Amino acid sequence: MNAHTTNGPGAVDPLLALRPWEAPEVTSWGRLPMNAVDRRSGCLSLDGDWRFQLLPAPDAPVGGEWSSAHVPGAWTLQGTDDLPQYTNIRMPFAEFPPGSPATNPTGVYERSVDVPAEWAGRRIVLQVGAAESVLLVHVDGRPVGISKDSHLAAEFELTDLVRPGGRTLVRLTVVKWSDASHIEDQDQWWHGGITRSVLLYATDPLRLADVTVRARRDGQLRVDCQVRDARGALPEGWSVSGDLDGHPLTRDREFDRVNAEEERVSDFLGEARLRATVPEVRTWTAETPELYDLTVRLHRADGTVADTSRHRVGFRDVEIVGRDLLVNGERVFIRGVNRHDFHPLTGRTVSQDDMRADLVLLKRFGFNAIRTAHYPNDPALYELADELGFYVVDEADIESHDHAHEIADDPRYLGAFVDRVSRMVLRDKNHPSVIIWSLGNESDYGANHDAAAGWVRRHDPTRPVQYEGAAKRGWADPDLASDIACPMYAPLEDCVAHALSGEQTKPLIQCEYSHALGNSNGTLADHWAAIEATPGLQGGFIWEFWDHGILQRVNDGRPVGRGGAGLYDNGVTAPGHRWAYGGDFGETIHDGAFIADGIVFPDRTPKPVMYEHREIAAPVRIDCFRHEGVVLSNHQHFRGLDWLSAEWELSSADGRTLTARAELPDLRPGGTAAVPMPFELPESGGEAWLTLRVTTAEDLPWAPRGTEVCAPQVRLRAAERPLATAMATATDGAEAESFDAGSVEVDDDGLLSHPLLTVAPTLSLWRAPTDNDELGGAALRWRAWGLDSMVRKVVSVHRDGPGVTVLAEYAGAIAAVRHRQVFTPVEGGVRVEEWAELPDDLHDVARVGSVFETVPGLDLLEWFGQGPWESYPDRGAGAPVGHHSVPVDALFTPYLRPQESGGRHGVRRFTLSAPDATGLTVALDEPRQVCVTRYRAADLTAATHHDELVPRPGCVVHIDAAHRGLGTASCGPDTFPSYLVAPGVHRWSWTLRVL
Ligand code: IPT
Predict the structure, then answer these.
(1) What does the mean pLDDT of the chain come to?
(2) Which one of 696, 713, 823, 867 has the lowest number of neighbouring Cβ atoms within 10 Å?
(3) Annotation marks residue 22 as catalytic
């Protein structure tokens, strides 16, 4: 039988007859109202393998052939021919809203369920955690309901359809494309399927229908309970009780229950209110996530318990006062990130362990806020945010990007907007972590938004509402739906100017900034310097947490799916696999690697920007250094430094590192104190840096004792004289014994021969374009100028005693660059002084510097400079200066689309050595940008995925006189002018010696 027909052959299924996939007015049918009652205890999980078939369209007949699909999970990652597709703004089909394409993959999931016999007489409910994008529910062939809103659960009552003790056939039909897809046009992979858990539970006919908790920082608790009875009328004599951390809330003087008049009974709905005042309450903040356990019970007339709901309560206030967003009365900085539910094997299906790992990592790197971009995340995320301490901007599942203007005012979508926003609020209202509601993302601004905002303001006056599309119409306009000025990618100078204008009326917190596509996030430290220095600015949310690479087999192009654990490590896939991005599944409409724009790799390996962020967010800082001591400050909002321990470290240029135990002072938030200078400064030794290595003092839920928290640093002494002078003197000395120093070998082509170099040093102006370079337009210019294929022509080779001067010209498409190298023998090596003149036409190039290659075997890089992680001129503020040592292979950051990678900023000298301690050392005239990799810039430029790269046996070494900042121009502002490479003359010098 075609199971889509219900009442005998020929009858049309009413759910299909509605054609709900092209009816935006139909947001649901037969679905129960959303609520915040916890139903997990005693439920029956229906997760696991379901019979499955994929139809070409929702109205296609169901066939007799079944395969199986795992629930929860997207079918696009489970071996079907319908594969993931990535688009950002564009819809993947041409139909205008509310239309959907005729070819419309539709998954039919079926399984039989043994309904527990002990559920006899109870009310039985099916919960589908999430389904994309239309869900149709049938039980034993009978229509039960419809739901849209792909990232929130849908519940359906089955009481009259199933027999406890009997077996029931549940069918869930999931239609991939619909009118709803047009408002789920988020920048992510398109999938289809049931992506969160499915379960069945039973309640007493008399039950808690909803629980609303309000807990304020003064210790006042209010719990509103809605009670319903499935039999139509509430029985006499019911009551509600509750307790908080074991202290009863009812019939207790301290926990005073509202009197009986307020407990009104109607045909179907009862309401009761519990109150308490907790003395000396431990308040909740992201720094101090103090939670209390609340249990609410509904009693029958005889006192027995009919229903129970458990909640974790955090006492805190959120308010906007003037232009400040306050948590518990404090103007807090929002160090946020946008987070999608994502996993490289399972797509939008994420486990609790995975989510915990996400949040633990964010805590360790100084983040305190999450925007659930761009839909309500998995419910467990909010519990973890409550527990670990994050401020959450909870965002409704509305993004109509491609057709934003049409939809924002389209009355056919009005219901969907209000439905999605209100259901999110109803689900998440009791989480202390949620401090702001967001109406969605990138959907223009229209009456549908105002309708949704109106609902929220009435239902939950305790939290602000934000919406970027509204804020865009005027950051200070009081009439718009957004209580917060929450722009995306606004230039920093505009934010500062607004805050200084005298016109600011709302907190300015960017909902997206510092776009993390590829090697990016330049100027993050400059942003934070301005935010911390400018009243009115409070932070923002980095775009974004994840690189959404899907693990893919290279041979057949298929996603690996659930079985792929262990096929990646440290950001890199196993041989034969790669991280797929847009276009890799054969999609013709796609947006390429724009999906790989996170601060972590698809396996959650942190990218270098995370370390930069950790320093920027440091809870304790070194303000300054005076002879009598070091001034420390507490940059937190709510707690002291007692959860931290620390050690002093003194690094001096002569190679020494001293350490000493540090006593952190007792500092209230915002306080400063001077502590004694821990070391006697050595008389000599050049540059010296004092670092405070701060770690956790005890085991925390997100970090074992001893986890690094930050490493603020201050320079105690500058280099005694400019390095350049120091080097010149050293060289003069060498020249005095010049003939001991030998001579340099330079061939007639002006190329240096050296036993440790396989490719002689030449001028380099090219870097493998970063995504910012590509999408921001710089790379286009550089290619047009021919910087990727400059032709070197030697002009003269002049031998003067032991030294050699080489003049060369590098011809590009529009201009030539003159380059001079002076090679001078020094003891054990050669000194290279370089000079390059960039004509004015070559303004803003990627780099000016030397590049050479070494013999194989020099596999360890040690350096004195900033590190140890990758850093660039505009993303290096956090990397402390010191002595660092990293294997060459580990220097490289495997950005999904290969690009410039692995640089180290502020390098004063470095050594490349083999295990037997042979090798070379290079001393630089000034702190320089140095990059040591296995790849030439051309290798990286040519590759589209990391797995195509073939490491060279030796090292490719770049020493840059100037290197362009990274900026964020792939989406947002470019780097600042001070980080650009100017035309004109560049000079640099370095001395290479054999170890
Ligand atoms: C902005 C989107 O909100 C976000 O989802 C993502 O696409 C980001 O950009 C870029 O990665 S929208 C953009 C048009 C500014």
Answers:
(1) 94
(2) 696
(3) no
